[in-house]
Amino acid sequence: MRPRRLVAVVGTGTDVGKTWVAARLLSDLRAAGLRVAARKPAQSFDPSDAPASRDAAVLGAASGEAAEDVCVPHRWYEIPMAPPMAAEALGRPTFGIADLMDELRWPGVPVEPLEPVDVGLVETAGGVRSPLAVDGDCLEFCRALAPDAVVLVADAGLGTINSVRLSAAALGAAGLVGTPVVVVLNRFGVGVDLHARNLEWLRTRDALTVVTMPGAESELAELVTG
């Protein structure tokens, strides 16, 4: 059952803080009284990572779900590589974008009749063009998902203008033109001149909708819920 509002969280690259941003967004939406659910189509991780620090567990803690509901266990790959590469390295079956879409299950609100959750959030892996399956990347997955809004998470520091421009252009070229894209400059330092200049450049010269985190969780929640 598709959520009333479906949000994709993508990144300009790895380690930009997608999961942290997604979890903060989920927590804020829940605090506002909305019913939420989170999904991670596939996750890879270092086996030495604490179970509670893995993406599905962090998202589940924020949405009130079990990690196994956020990401189905057979899509957990205990090696830090892009999911299709991790599957190959571990000797496990290959999978495509269609497989990930088929496995995407959303809970209903337990009333009569069953109702969809208010906001469903899907976090991809790596950057926009990172492989997510043998036949497609996060961009292809987003095209199949057809979200109502996209959150593009980027680092606030040096190089972010280039990475945000490339990622935003790729989202538009993938047929997501018209889908609202909210850029999040993560780890934004108040008083850091470079961060402030990056923010101003993206807002004024590229006319992008940009928020900064930490601090703008409520604004982000308002933007993605329409």
State the main characteristics:
226 residues; alpha/beta; 12 strands; Rossmann fold; six-stranded parallel beta sheet; 9 helices; 38% helix; two-stranded parallel sheet; single chain
User: Number of helical segments?
Assistant: 9
Instruction: Give the proportion of residues in helices.
Output: 25-40%
Topology, number of strands: 12
The best one-word shape is: globular
Task: Specify Rg, calculated over alpha carbons.
Answer: 17 Å
- Mean pLDDT equals 95
Low-confidence stretches: none
Terminal residue distance: 20 Å
β content, as a range? 15-25%
Number of spatially distinct domains? 1
Major sheet strand order: 2-7-1-10-11-12
How would you summarize what this structure contains?
Helix content is 38%, strand content 21%. The chain is α/β, with parallel strands linked by helices and 226 residues long. Strand 10, helix 7 (160-176) and strand 11 form a beta-alpha-beta unit.
Write the layout of secondary structure elements.
Layout: E1 5-11, H1 18-31, E2 36-39, E3 43-44, H2 55-63, H3 67-70, E4 76-77, H4 83-89, H5 97-102, E5 108-109, E6 115-116, E7 119-123, E8 131-133, E9 136-137, H6 138-145, E10 149-155, H7 160-176, E11 181-186, H8 193-204, E12 209-213, H9 217-224
Parallel strand pairs: 1-7, 1-10, 2-7, 3-4, 10-11, 11-12
Antiparallel strand pairs: 5-6, 8-9
